[in-house]
Design goal:
Shape: globular
Number of domains: 1
CATH superfamily: P-loop containing nucleotide triphosphate hydrolases
CATH class: Alpha Beta
Largest sheet: 6 strands, parallel
Distance between the termini: 21 Å
CATH architecture: 3-Layer(aba) Sandwich
Helix content: 25-40%
Structural class: alpha/beta
Strand order of the largest sheet: 2-5-1-8-9-10
Length: 235
């Protein structure tokens, strides 16, 4: 049996990576061996230092090389499908599936796979993020930003996930600042899945090495009871 989660979003820029990294760090805190995967990353200013993959590696304390964590990397800040095409490289769904190398060896191993963009964003030639999630058959964590219009985006993405037959493990309402948009109460009335609200993180430049957003999000997740994730629901 493969244990893991597929982290996706309602859109680009909603904080998928910071939430994925926080989940990686949370599992690591409880002694679970985390295998992070960011199979494709575009918008890399330095191909040798992909920001998202490095963040996942750091948060999970993973020893795997970046070539294993994120084998397909592109400079252009575009969808992976288009970035690959403009780079003159092939990027197929099978290539992404094979790159994930999901661990099935032990109950204390878990795979955290982060997609690229939203659930219906193109991720490879003729493939969307949801196609990768379906191929991997991992429960999905949906990340949306607490902003005006956020409920609409979350409900649309939720419907797409559920109608595909995938399991929706949790919905994360990220970067919340109170409930000034009314999104929390609105979603509570409309979804059955665990709804996790992550408060907006404000970081001072002088806070030192533990000042990454995922560090603070992990602490917020630690306070949840019960934890809505596989392997951790008994902690």
């Amino acid at each position: 049996m493969t244990y893991g989660l597929f982290i996706t979003g309602t859109d680009t820029g909603v904080g998928k990576t910071e939430v994925a990294a926080a989940i990686c760090a949370l599992y690591t805190k409880y002694g679970v061996t985390v295998h992070p995967h960011k199979p494709v990353e575009s918008g890399c200013s330095d191909l040798n230092a992909p920001t998202d993959a490095l963040t996942l590696k750091l948060a999970s304390e993973c020893r795997d090389s970046l070539d294993i964590i994120s084998p397909y990397r592109f400079i252009q800040p575009l969808s992976p499908e288009l970035a690959a095409k403009l780079s003159g490289k092939k990027l197929s769904l099978d290539m992404l599936i094979n790159s994930c190398q999901l661990s099935t060896t032990h109950i204390t191993d878990i795979n955290i796979v982060e997609g690229a963009g939203g659930i219906y964003s193109p991720i490879a030639e003729d493939a969307l993020n949801i196609d990768l999630a379906l191929s991997l058959q991992l429960p999905v964590v949906l990340v949306g930003e607490d902003r005006l219009g956020g409920v609409n985006q979350i409900l649309l993405a939720r419907r797409a996930i559920l109608e595909s037959g995938l399991t929706l493990a949790a919905i994360v309402l990220n970067r919340s600042n109170g409930d000034k948009f009314g999104n929390i109460e609105s979603l509570k009335r409309r979804v059955l899945e665990p709804l996790i609200t992550i408060n907006e993180v404000s970081i001072s430049p002088n806070e030192g090495r533990n000042s990454e957003p995922w560090h603070y999000i992990r602490e917020q997740l630690t306070e949840l009871s019960p934890l809505p994730f596989p392997l951790l629901d008994s902690h």
